[in-house]
Amino acid sequence: METNTVGRILCVVNQKGGVGKTTTAVNLSAALALSGQRALLLDMDPQCNATTSLGCEPTVGHALISNSNLNENIVDTDIEHLSLLPGSRTFHDVDKMASPGDEESQQIRTHLDEVIDEYDFVLIDCPPSVGALTQTALTASTEVLMPIQCEYFAMEGLTQLIQTIKKVIVATDGRLTFGGILLTMYDPTLELTREVDEEVRDFFGDIVFDSVVPRDVSLSEAPSHGQSVFQYAPRSRGAYAYTQLCMEVLQRD
What is the per-residue pLDDT for 79? Predict the structure, then answer.
């Protein structure tokens, strides 16, 4: 498969936790790499779950706010074509990244610009918030990918997040676009799931992916083994779902 000529930076974001944000960042990046795309997963969540999900350790200091070359801090994973920029739980770095000034924000964007030409896709796993760190990640990105859990409060709080995204779109002169909304923890046997599906698609229209991610124990178990779902359970429903999502993302180029 041919690689893209212009790198795409996907910011995986939702202000709520437990919606499949990190699961999506990890497994979509893995799926893209397995399809032959050069992919970089960038962990900006202080919980560092994306880092440990791929069997790597958080760093003492986050490379995005250091003066070192970003390439010196990027590590290879067990998946060919997939690289990782590990996250950091160091309080000083978390605080600095969560409340960036203009200098730190520009430094983060400059670091990303240094490496974007080396990858077809950069996926950013953001913290579950609409704070300054998430806004900085959005500013540096070209697309937003928003996982939404199929539950009663799925739409709650999205207005604030969407307003934040719209502000960044205006501030970046349209560099940032809505890449897509992904329904997660999908159970077609539940009436609630079908209701949320209909509501989200009626409200957001074509930006909602056709692909949905089902409830699948493999997706929950894989991180504890330091593996993507493709390594842990390649024939699982979760692996199939993220393969389908990968195909849609590639088609939306």
Answer: 97
